[in-house]
Amino acid sequence: MQTVAVIGLGYVGLPLALQFARSGCRVLGLDIDPTKIDAIHNGRSYIAHVPAADIAAQSADGRLEASADLSRVSAADAVILCVPTPLDAHREPDLRYVLDTGRAIAPHLAPGTLVVLESTTYPGTTDTELRAVLEQGSGLVAGKDFHLAFSPEREDPGNPDSQVQAIPKVVGGLTPACLEKATALYGKAIRTVVPVSSCRVAEATKLLENIFRSVNIALVNELKLVYGAMDIDIWEVIEAAKTKPFGYMPFYPGPGLGGHCIPIDPFYLTWKAREYGMHTRFIELAGEINTAMPDHVVRVCTEALNREGKAVKGARILILGLAYKANVDDDRESPTYKLIEKLEALGATVAYHDPHIPVIPKTREHAQYAGRKSVDAITADHDLLLLATAHEAYRKHDFSAFKTSLVDTRNAVAPQHRPERYLRA
Ligand SMILES: NC(=O)c1ccc[n+]([C@@H]2O[C@H](COP(=O)([O-])OP(=O)(O)OC[C@H]3O[C@@H](n4cnc5c(N)ncnc54)[C@H](O)[C@@H]3O)[C@@H](O)[C@H]2O)c1
Fold this sequence. Notes:
Elements: E1 3-7, H1 13-22, E2 26-30, H2 34-41, H3 52-60, E3 64-67, E4 78-81, H4 96-105, E5 114-117, H5 125-138, E6 147-150, E7 169-173, H6 176-189, E8 193-196, H7 199-229, H8 234-241, H9 266-275, H10 281-291, H11 293-307, E9 316-320, H12 335-345, E10 349-353, E11 384-387, H13 392-396, E12 405-408, E13 422-424
Parallel strand pairs: 1-2, 1-4, 2-3, 4-5, 5-6, 7-8, 9-10, 9-11, 11-12, 12-13
Antiparallel strand pairs: 6-7
């Protein structure tokens, strides 16, 4: 039985660890966060779409074990890194987590081990920075004494039909032997493995996928403003365009980008491109358009209040949805935080409602909101309702009797459920 160590048991690492365990591997889940280790030992889940029963079943079978002791990679045949790759305060790549993990495991790497990086990053990270810390700390040579590869994760949070084993996995290796090892490893747990010629191609593939989304979201956000000025409904246009059976796929406008990937990953490439004297104009422009969206939403809120003779200052505003995406409990980089910040700066009193996030967790970026609680119910005692996330609960909610204005940034409220004062932003 092969032993696979998965380091970083978050949104990416935990489902992957479970999939390897289900596929018959012995899995060692490693994380520096003791609450996650504790949860796994006790068969609890800390990610909404990962059933606790799955964790309990794999732990009970002895297939999944969790630990904070990174030296235990010495017993693993393969080590997969799923740690964060955020941007720093200057919006530059922060490889600290990847490189710290590399440094921590290097002295314990046994010859012949396969190391795979899954964290999204710029091309060259695996075969230069990560390779260097692993070689320095282990005294081993990559591609000769141990194997090294990159394989990007493709998570689709909130999609109940998305299963780890069914999503094709791109893999690039440092050498043909590294690629062979990595392809064989993922072949145990994932139905389709897509080998590519290098770690850099695999890294670049992930960035292409995320840049494609960022640019297309920016395009519909811009068209929303242009068509809006012409009194044309962008959502109706998208529904019509969607009927084209080829050459088009729908993207939807919204209050701004959110989540761990799209607002961050493209800028990994922007940073790296500078080293080659290249500019990533599409990425920058998309970033500019998407980050301006919360300002547009605030303008529409101001207009909605103004129509009732009210000012933003002193208005009581309820934002519906804190999660960055429908039906998930993930608030990372959520545009709702930007909306709260901007509306409060104008003097509004802002509350939020989110059935998936009852209390705002501690985050590095929005520490000031930690502990703030979701209101229990959507009541009419506000001056304005602002729908920021298209949760199913809001799609079903009947707002038609509300006298309060409702600004909908997602086109989520069905025509028969809209209040009289309804605006889209
Ligand atoms: N969430 C997604 O949908 C998604 C999709 C594709 C790719 N990714 C990429 O995958 C990577 C991980 O993302 P995530 O969403 O799983 O992040 P996450 O924050 O949910 O999980 C990361 C985990 O790593 C742990 N960790 C941090 N430093 C560590 C260290 N030195 N040693 C051991 N554990 C450590 C943290 O405690 C945390 O549990 C990122 O590069 C991200 O860009 C994420």
